[in-house]
C-alpha cells in the first residue's frame, strides 16, 4: 500500500505516451459521439427549437410520438413493411446468386461484378436515375417497357400503392450483390469433403443443399439479415430524392414516409429538435434491440 | 467472436477467385445453365438502368422526351456536360445549361468534385492515423483501462449514427463550423469500426517485433510510424476502400451542415439540381452529374478490388 501515493505520478511516467496516443481518437470519440448521444437523450425530454434554451417537459415527446402522432405511426408502419419485404426478398436473392455464381471461372466473376456494381455507385446518382426511369411521361423507361407489353403509362411515383413496392425494388436491386458477396465468402469456407461424404451416402443435390450448405451458412445468414435490417431501418436517400414532394417529405399521402426522413423533416425542416431527438431514440432502441439479438444468436451458435 | 458486430463493414471482392465451387447444378452443364437462367435474366435488369443512364448523358436536350425513346443516341453530344450553344439571355429550347454551367460558383461542378475529393482524402487519412495510434496502444501497451475503453468503442457500433444528428448539428452551429470543411471532416474522424478492425488485425501481429524495436531504443511514436503502420498496411488498405466509398457518397450529414453552393459535396449538389429542375429536358445534365459522381468510385473500386478480399477474410465473419 506504500506505493499507492506515488502511483499516479509513476503511472503517468510509465503510460503518459500511451495516453497521449489514445487521446486523438478518444477525444473525438467523446466529443462527437458519446457527448452528443447523452445530449440527444436529454434533448428528447425537452422542447427545443434550436434558438431558445431547451425547455424540459419530461416524457411529453414520447407520449406524443406513441399516442398522438398519426404521421409517426404511419412512418413506423411503412418502415416495418419496407424492412421486412426488402430484407426478405433481398436475402433470398443474395443466396440464390451466391449459389449460382460462386465459381472462379470468368463468367461467374463477371456476373458477380455486375451484381455488385450498385454497391460502389454513388447512391444519390442511382436514386436520380430511378426517378428518371419512373418518369410519368410515356418516354420514361418504365413506361416504355409497359407499352411493350401492351400496358398503359403509369404515374409510378404519384400512386400511393406503388410507393413501398418501388422502394423495395430499388433496395433489393441495389443491395442483393452485397449479400451475394458475403454468401460467396461463406460458401467457400465449407470444406468440399462434406459434399463428397454426402454424395457417397447417396444425397441428392437438394439434400446436400438442405443438410450441408444451409446449416453451415447460418452465421452468414444471421449477419446478412441483421445488417440488412439495420441498414433498411435507416433508409433516407431513396425517400428524400425519389418521393419527396415540394412540401411533403413522405411523397403522396405520406406513402413513403419512414423513420429517418420523418426525423429529418421534424428536426431540420420544422426545427423541432427536441421532438426529432425523441424520434432518434426510438430508432436507437429498435437498432440496439436488433444488435442484441445478433449478439445473442452469435453466442448461441458458438455454443452449439 | 462468432458473428461480427452489426456495423462492421464487410468489404469483399466480388471477382476474387474462391477456393472451390460448391454443388447445386454445378459446372457448365445444360442443367446448370438452365438453373441459372433466371439469374442471367436478372443480370439484364442490373445492366439496363446503367445503360439508360449512359445513353441519357449523351442525348441532346430535344431527344430526351421523345416517344418512343431512342436506345442509341441518334445525335450523340457532350452538351449535357457543357453546351457552348447555351446563352443566359437568349432562350432556346434546344440548348440548356450543361452540368458544368448549372451552378454560379467558380469551376461549376468541378468545385463539388474538388470538395468531395478534399473531404474524402482528409477523412480517410485522418481516421486511419488516429485509429491506428489507438489500436496500437490498446493491443500492445498494458495501459490500465484499455479493456474498458475498447468495450465502450465496440458497444458504440450498435448506435445508429442518426441519433447524434441533432446534437452534432448544434455543436457545429455553436463552433461556427456549418458550411466549412472542418464541419465535414472533424466529426467523421473517430470511426469505431475502423478501430475495431485494426485491433483485431494487430492481435495477430507478434509482440516480439515491437519488443525488439524497444530494446533497440526506438520511441513509441517511432515504433508506431516505422513498424506498426507498415505492418498494418493490408488492413489499412481494406479499410480505406470502405471509408473512401462511404465518404465520397455521404449525403445526410452534408445535407444538414451545408448552406452555400460553394461548400456542397457532389451528392448535395446533385440533390439540389433534383429540387430545382424536375423536367425531362434537364435529365441529361443531371445524369451527367450522376455519371461524374459514380465513375470515380467505380474506378477506385475496380483498381483496388484485390484489397477487398482481405476485408472479408480479416473481419469476424469467418470465425
TrEMBL record, chain A:
Its main location: membrane. Residues 76-294 form the ABC transmembrane type-1 domain. It comes from Microbispora siamensis. It comes from the Bacteria. Pfam families: BPD_transp_1. Keywords: Cell membrane, Membrane, Transmembrane, Transmembrane helix, Transport. It is found in: Cell membrane. The chain crosses the membrane at residues 19-38, 80-101, 113-133, 153-173, 220-243, 273-295. It is a multi-pass membrane protein. This is Sugar ABC transporter permease.
Automatic annotation (TrEMBL), chain B:
The chain crosses the membrane at residues 39-58, 112-136, 148-172, 184-202, 223-245, 284-304. Its main location: membrane. Residues 113-304 form the ABC transmembrane type-1 domain. It holds the Pfam family BPD_transp_1. The keyword Glycoprotein does not apply. It comes from the Bacteria. Keywords: Cell membrane, Membrane, Transmembrane, Transmembrane helix, Transport. It is a multi-pass membrane protein. It is found in: Cell membrane. Belongs to the binding-protein-dependent transport system permease family. This is Sugar ABC transporter permease. The gene is lacG.
